[in-house]
Amino acid sequence: MPEVIFNGPAGRLEGRYQPSKEKSAPIALILHPHPQFGGTMNNQIVYQLFYMFQKRGFTTLRFNFRGIGRSQGEFDHGAGELSDAASALDWVQSLHPDSKTCWVAGYSFGSWIGMQLLMRRPEIEGFMSIAPQPNTYDFSFLAPCPSSGLIINGEADKVAPEKDVNGLVEKLKTQKGILITHRTVANANHFFNGQVETLMSECEDYLDRRLNGELVPEPAAKRIR
């Protein structure tokens, strides 16, 4: 798994990158938790997500946001980190011009950044939002959410209470033309302590079903002229 350094908006960014053998393979970008609370690209869940996509033939990248590890710059409360993520996707796409589609998977703070990136990049066709925090971060920009995806949270999450995540899911589920899949991991906290295996099996099941052409949203009703 090659270590890579590429240019970001605030200096160099450090990542781990695994290209697919297929030139036109989709890209997966994995985004880590909050930089000021110990989040790095080596977080166990980020690491497992990286390998989940890699094993399924994706060209895969995880990286450290600005100010973490060997990535230059300073924490920027989300705005700069979104620019970092966009630069990371640009970098992979420059190496894989035949890749037409992309997935983004983010955990905690990373899920908030990932959902913002989703709004800006039409080539992102699927997302995984793990333990999002709609009680802390504003998700109102998802109007409308452009792609189908998975939202998964822990039943006993005190950082992002279940009722807040449920509110976000219900809002997104009213949108036509996309399919939001929601899973809750029983008894799991925000860090999925002792439950990472369960979390990953849910993510794998979702990704496999999407890749098999399942979980297709109902077509929007045609207007009668």
TrEMBL record:
A Pfam family per the record: Abhydrolase_1
InterPro entries named among the record's database cross-references: AB_hydrolase_1, AB_hydrolase_fold
Coiled-coil zones: none
Domain AB hydrolase-1: 34-135
Name of protein: AB hydrolase-1 domain-containing protein
Organism: Rhizobium lentis
